[in-house]
Amino acid sequence: MSTPEDLRRHAPATQRNRAPILDVLRTYFQTTRRVLEIASGTGEHAVYFGSHLPHLDWQTSDLDPTARASIQAWLQDADIPNVHPPLALDVCKLPWPVRDLDAIVCINMIHIAPWAACEALFQGASQSLSPDGWLYLYGPFKRHGEHTAPSNEAFDQSLQQRDSAWGVRDLDQQIAPLAQQSGFCDPIVVSMPANNLSVLWRKNNPHEHFSSP
Ligand SMILES: C[S@@+](CC[C@H](N)C(=O)[O-])C[C@H]1O[C@@H](n2cnc3c(N)ncnc32)[C@H](O)[C@@H]1O
């Protein structure tokens, strides 16, 4: 008799970045409830964040059916009632089938997708977040036209070799104008290990509620 196929996928980076990201979410998502995770990938982040932050109602999603099967398999294994099976959500297909969200979390996607996906992410977030809602991005970013580390520059080159539409985005020159056009205030920027950043935008001024740690 054949054993059932294990559809759970593993992304080693999630083991390294999940604890520092959890610290940021714990700090800023204290009163947050409804979260949509865009590009949940393997599902390992959702299981980890959902189990450590049980006050969050965490909706997973991904464009890719293989990713969605992995997310589903991780969820079945973990049995975490506040984390929900994945939506088939392509950020570029607007409007998204979700409204009145308190937060949108998008980890390591905007550099592994065309720029149009980043534009759609901000437009969709603007439509789907409640007035005080957070948009949280994590990943590598350029600052003021420059890479912040040689490793990020090498990563950027490798991305563009894989797909010329991919690449590390510039927080100040590309994303800040887009965020402003989409109705978000200046972001909170948190330095993370391995030359990554956490960036949090809110439609209302986040600095009225929190000071950067
Ligand atoms: C590098 S993986 C990151 C996955 C996960 N967030 C993590 O940190 O492990 C990029 C993910 O973005 C998803 N993705 C790419 N383009 C997308 C789009 N237009 N809409 C939604 N998800 C997308 C891919 O399917 C993939 O799961």
Features:
Rossmann fold; 7 strands; 213 residues; single chain; 22% strand
Task: Tell me the layout of helices and strands.
Elements: H1 12-28, E1 34-38, H2 44-52, E2 57-62, H3 65-78, E3 83-88, E4 101-107, H4 115-128, E5 129-139, H5 150-162, H6 171-181, E6 188-192, E7 196-202
Parallel strand pairs: 1-2, 1-4, 2-3, 4-5
Antiparallel strand pairs: 5-7, 6-7
Helix pairs in contact: 1-2
The structure holds S-adenosylmethionine.
Characterise the protein shown here.
- The protein has 213 residues and is α/β, with parallel strands linked by helices.
- The protein has a single domain, classed as 3-Layer(aba) Sandwich (Rossmann fold), CATH 3.40.50.150.
- The chain is 37% helix and 22% strand.
- The chain has a seven-stranded mixed β-sheet with strand order 3-2-1-4-5-7-6, sandwiched between helices.
- Helix 1 (12-28) packs parallel to helix 2.
- The longest helix is centred in the N-terminal third of the chain and has 17 residues, at 12-28.
- It is globular.
- The termini are far apart.
Side-by-side strand order of the widest sheet = 3-2-1-4-5-7-6
Strand segment tally: 7
* Number of domain units: 1
CATH superfamily: Vaccinia Virus protein VP39
Succession of helices and strands = HEHEHEEHEHHEE
Q: Indicate the CATH topology.
A: Rossmann fold
Bound molecules: S-adenosylmethionine
The profile of the biggest β sheet is:
7 strands, mixed
The averaged pLDDT comes out at 94
Low-confidence stretches: none
CATH class: Alpha Beta
Radius of gyration from the alpha-carbon trace, in angstroms: 17 Å
Overall SS class: alpha/beta
Which band does the percent of strand residues land in? 15-25%
Number of helices: 6
